[in-house]
Specification:
Shape: rod-shaped
Strand content: under 5%
Number of helices: 1
Length: 60
């Protein structure tokens, strides 16, 4: 026989779902930011290497 009154755990389930989505979004954003930072660092390093190569060829 079903219980009378409010459904069991609906508030906790909704809260848990919301918190888990927040956590997933946070992790996704952190991964994305890390990728962007790494791309920027690699791009900067490549530009410096190109400048060093250009300056070393003109010195000869």
């Amino acid at each position: 026989m079903p219980k009378k009154g409010k459904a069991k755990n609906t508030v906790n389930k909704a809260k848990h779902t919301r918190l888990m989505k927040q956590k997933e979004n946070k992790l996704r954003l952190e991964k994305q930011r890390t990728k962007e930072r790494l791309k920027a660092i690699i791009k900067k390093a490549n530009e410096q290497n190109l400048q060093n190569d250009d300056s070393s060829t003109t010195d000869n």
